[in-house]
Structure formats: C-alpha cells, structure tokens
Amino acid sequence: MGKRVAIIGAGVSGLASIRCCLEEGLEPTCFERSSDVGGLWKFSDHAEEGRASIYQSVFTNSSKEMMCFPDFPYPDDYPNYMHHSKLQEYIQTFAQKKNLLRYIKFETLVSSIKKCPSFIVTGQWDIVIEKDGNQESIIFDAVMICSGHHVYPNLPTNSFPGLENFQGNYFHSRDYKGPDAFKGKRVLVIGLGNSGSDIAVELSRLAAQVMISTRSGSWVMSRVWDDGYPWDMVYVTRFASFLRNVFPPLISDWLYVKKMNTWFKHENYGLMPLNGPLRKEPVFNDELPSRILCGALSIKPSVKLFTETSAMFEDGTMFEAIDSIIFATGYNYAYPFLDDSIIKSRNNEITLFKGIFPPHMEKPTLAVIGLVQSLGAAIPTADLQARWAAKVFADSCILPTMKEMMDDIDEKMGKKLKCLFFSFLRFGQSQTLQTDYITYMDELGSFIGAKPNIPWLMLTDPQLALEVYFGPCSPYQFRLMGPGKWDGARNAILTQWDRTVKPTRSRVVSETQRQHPFFNLFKMLSFSVLLLAILLVFY
Ligand SMILES: Cc1cc2nc3c(=O)[nH]c(=O)nc-3n(C[C@H](O)[C@H](O)[C@H](O)COP(=O)(O)OP(=O)(O)OC[C@H]3O[C@@H](n4cnc5c(N)ncnc54)[C@H](O)[C@@H]3O)c2cc1C
Ligand SMILES: *[C@@H]1O[C@H](CO)[C@@H](O)[C@H](O)[C@H]1NC(C)=O
C-alpha cells in the first residue's frame, strides 16, 4: 500500500497533485469545498466564501501552448488566449480523461491540519474535514496544500484617510462581475494590476468617467507580441532567457525598458513605473493605451484623501462626484486551516524551500503547490512542483538538510522573496524583480531528472534541440526525458506553432493570391537597376 496523501483543493494545482501522486504509487484523496474542479476558473456570478472569484470577462494572459498540462495539449482549434469558460472546459476534460474525479471528495471542507503526536517518527497529519455539517478526523501520511491564493481580498481601507466619509459605494475587485451596473457612472479604480486594468477598460465603455489610481505605475504589455505571435511564445524561450542573463544588469535593464516602451511610451500615458527597470510583474492589456488615447480612461497617482464625494490625489488634482470605488488591490494569502508558524517560520516571512517545502519539519511530509508565481503559467509550474513533492513523499527524492534549505532560502529568496510570492504588498501589486520562469522550472526539473538535456538532444535530435532552445519553452519540454516522460512530447513540441496559428488563420490565402513573390521580384529588379545605374555612373 502506498502512502496516503491528502490534497486540499481541486483547482489546477490539486489536479496536478492527484495525478503526480498516482504516478508515484501514492494514494491521493483530494478534498474540495465546492462542487466542481477548476478552482478559480469555475465561474460563479457571486463571490463564494473561501474560493477565488473572477469577473465574467476574464481571459487568460498566457497562451495555450504555454499553459497546458505537459502531456495534454489543447485542441488545435482552441484560441491562444482563452475565455475562462473555455479553460474550465479543458480542466474538466483533463480531470475526466486522466480519471482523477474518483479521488476527489466534493463539498468537503478541510477545517484543520495538525501534526499527529507521533509526527517525529511517522510524519503523519491529522486532518479534520467537514461535510454536510459533520466533522470527521482522518490520519494521512502526507499533505499537499493546493487551496489557491486569490481568495482573501486585501482591502487596505485604513490607509485611505477620509474613506469613512465617502458616500458612494466601494468594494474589492473580487466582488466585481461585470459593467452593467456602472452605466453613466463615475468610477475610480484603485490599483493597476491585471484586474484593475481589465475592469477599468471594461467600464470605460459604459461609464461616464473612469480613473485608475496607481502608486507605482506598471509596464503594460500586449498579448500580441512581435509579428503578432502570442507574447510568451516569443518571450519565454531559453535563448531569450540566456540573452537576458548574459548581459550586465545595466544593459539588460536598458534593453528591457526599451522593449517595454516600443509599443507606446509609458511616460506619456502616466503609466511609467517608479522603479523603471525593476522587473515588476507587467500588466497584460491590449486596450488600456487605446482607452487612454481616447480619453475614456486616465491614470492618476495615489489618493491622498477622500471626501464625501470625491478623491484628492497626491498631485493635488481631484476626481469629483465619484459614484463607486473599486479596490483592485490584490489578495493576501492565508491558510486558515494551518498553524501559521509552519509556513512562516521567521519574522512573519514565508520561508519555503523552493516555494514548496517548510524547511523546519522533522519529516518532509507537507508541500505547498501553486503558491510560487514567476512570470510563467500556473499549470506547468504546479505540475512540476507536484511531481517533485510526490517523489519526496515516495522517498525517491531526498531534501537537503534543514540548514542547507534555510541558507538557500536566505540566499536565493532573500532579496527576491517578494517577487516569488507576489501580491502581499499594499495596493496589490508586487514590487518585484521577476523570477525567471525557465530558471525556476529547470531547477525543479533537475531535482527529478526531467530537465531537458540540450547538448544530448543536439547530438541525437538536432531538429528538436533547436526548437527546444530557440523556440518557446513550452510545458512539453519537462516531460520530454527522464522519469515521467510522455511519448508525445517530441511531436507536441514540433507541432506547437501549427496549433498556435490554426485558430486565427481562419481565412487561408493561397500561395498565388499573396503579393509576396511578385513584390520580392520587384524589389530585386529595382535593386539591380540601381546597381547598374551606379556602375554606369562610375565608369
Ligand atoms: C483574474 C485572474 C487571471 C489569471 N490568469 C491566469 C493566466 O492566464 N494564466 C495563468 O497561468 N494563471 C493565471 N492566474 C493565476 C491562477 O492563480 C492560476 O491560473 C490557477 O488557477 C491557480 O490554481 P490553484 O489550483 O493553485 O488555486 P485555485 O484555482 O484557487 O483552487 C483552489 C481550490 O481549493 C479549494 N479550497 C480552498 N480551501 C479549501 C479548504 N479548506 N477545503 C477544501 N477545499 C478548499 C477551493 O474551493 C478551490 O477550488 C489568474 C488569476 C486571476 C485571479
Ligand atoms: C496573469 O494574471 C494573473 C491575475 O492578475 C496574475 O496573477 C498572473 O501573474 C498573470 N500572469 C502573468 C504571466 O503575468
């Protein structure tokens, strides 16, 4: 009999965890408080207690080839950026096809997780669950916490003097579902993260006036990147990551800022981040600059003071007659079922080895999956984290000593801590240096023997090696070799661009209808004529 593992939550992290436990011969039981899989992506038209809540118009900001389960590509007709309902369909299909549903206990809340008295010897946990008002306590050999971190709103009302006098209504973006109620209204959005800008852009089409107040500004990126390809298919490559790391910071910062400003000059739109080159997590929004150009939306600094009806900003300007204020100020993470000291062993800071394992455990039988966020997609990250955790539980991987883990946390996370664990800062945006997604994934991959060996590929399969190195660092790469490899990975990598262009090439122009060939011929002709003319002149 394999060890029994409790998994809290059946979002994408929980599903990845169930699957990885099965791969290691462990016995998973997943507890999910709601009635379906998907977590955050299961939309409901009112915010539910203890569960993430999204608005009706959420689309993904990673593209489909970069955010799939690594052995489960999206159907090729799926759009690159998906509406939440489309992603939810995919997640449900994954759970069905991989036979994961029978390991999930729905409508079951985990209310407490405690070490058993015998923990030092057994590493076991006592888990209390609640279903239909009944409590039950069950012993497990290990625990994976997959309960999400977009759940507990950060509503910094105390840092806004005068808010208590404000007569209109205010609420957290968690309770925002759609724009209908704001027709003709004057709305202030606080916070320039992904949610804040999405909401403001959406409101700007109906509302009378919309402003975003931001303390520190943000880089705004388009989903549509060079040559119209999805941003991450071009940006998240091993080669680009190598280039970013090989230049001295001064140069790579300069290049970064230059790149970020090619679409539009952030300074002129009031968006320029305070610490310009700091790799703050960018905002993805294709319409924000255009709404600002159209005057439907404007960007303001922090609010200094609220009165009954208006806001005064730090620069002394006012926004008058405000009807509603929306706080898009992010989330605080919380694990109400767990003693806080397990995750934060020091100064109220998160101390987790590689963002997963608490280092101070006598036995490594607890893992947090899906908390670390780098500039990459959640699904492949969770899959790799869960694979490693399952191997640690199954004793086929061994963690370093407590001291080594703490040193690693101090060294690597020390200054980057805030960037790994985004969100807990005031106003909802991390002040981050981005953690490089590929570096993090490779590190996890190397623990379980799944990091792609590119020199070896170069010798044995050069075509694949080139696509792995210069092409997008898609999730399939981490199931290409080593334990847990997927036989379809090679083919999935070599066909990823086909699946990318398929859904948008919905009107195919045949070779003869294109103007290229003739156009090129024309260019070549005129070039030869020019050359000839120059020769003639000089003789
Ligand atoms: C607006 C928005 C857009 C995003 N867009 C993207 C994107 O494009 N790409 C991307 O990669 N990421 C995106 N993310 C990040 C997102 O966090 C991840 O995509 C992913 O959904 C996280 O999954 P999870 O399983 O870790 O957590 P969740 O999806 O939050 O799932 C947690 C589950 O645990 C359950 N649960 C919690 N507590 C308990 C308990 N005590 N007992 C039982 N069950 C419990 C909950 O009911 C829930 O089902 C976005 C986030 C937001 C807010
Ligand atoms: C996508 O948006 C979500 C929600 O704001 C955010 O947590 C995540 O970091 C974003 N992804 C990227 C790659 O920036």
Explain what the structure shows.
- With 539 residues, the chain is α/β, with parallel strands linked by helices.
- The chain folds into three domains: 4-151 and 332-438, FAD/NAD(P)-binding domain; 155-222 and 263-329, FAD/NAD(P)-binding domain; 454-501, no CATH class.
- 32% of the residues lie in helices and 15% in strands.
- The chain has helices spanning 12-23, 84-97, 119-122, 194-203, 231-235, 238-246, 249-260, 288-293, 340-343, 378-393, 402-413, 417-420, 437-447, 454-460, 462-470, 489-494, 496-501, 516-538; strands at residues 4-8, 27-31, 104-105, 109-115, 125-131, 134-140, 142-145, 152-153, 169-172, 186-190, 209-213, 220-221, 283-284, 297-300, 303-306, 311-313, 318-319, 324-327, 331-332, 366-368.
- The strands form six sheets. Strands 3-2-1-7-20 form a five-stranded parallel β-sheet, with helices on one face. A five-stranded parallel β-sheet has the order 9-18-10-11-14.
- A hairpin with a 4-residue loop joins strand 16 (311-313) and strand 17 (318-319).
- Helix 10 (378-393) runs parallel beside helix 13.
- The longest helix is centred in the C-terminal third of the chain and has 23 residues, at 516-538.
- The chain starts with a strand and ends with a helix.
Quick rundown:
The protein is of the alpha/beta class and 539 residues long.
Keywords:
alpha/beta; FAD/NAD(P)-binding domain; 539 residues; binds flavin-adenine dinucleotide; 5-stranded parallel beta sheet; 20 strands; binds 2-acetamido-2-deoxy-beta-D-glucopyranose
Compile the SSE list and pairings.
Elements: E1 4-8, H1 12-23, E2 27-31, H2 84-97, E3 104-105, E4 109-115, H3 119-122, E5 125-131, E6 134-140, E7 142-145, E8 152-153, E9 169-172, E10 186-190, H4 194-203, E11 209-213, E12 220-221, H5 231-235, H6 238-246, H7 249-260, E13 283-284, H8 288-293, E14 297-300, E15 303-306, E16 311-313, E17 318-319, E18 324-327, E19 331-332, H9 340-343, E20 366-368, H10 378-393, H11 402-413, H12 417-420, H13 437-447, H14 454-460, H15 462-470, H16 489-494, H17 496-501, H18 516-538
Parallel strand pairs: 1-2, 1-7, 2-3, 7-20, 9-18, 10-11, 10-18, 11-14, 12-13
Antiparallel strand pairs: 4-5, 5-6, 8-19, 15-16, 16-17
Helix pairs in contact: 1-10, 10-13, 14-15
Bound molecules: flavin-adenine dinucleotide and 2-acetamido-2-deoxy-beta-D-glucopyranose (NAG).
Cofactor: FAD
Main location: endoplasmic reticulum
Keywords: Endoplasmic reticulum, FAD, Flavoprotein, Membrane, Microsome, Monooxygenase, NADP, Oxidoreductase, Transmembrane, Transmembrane helix
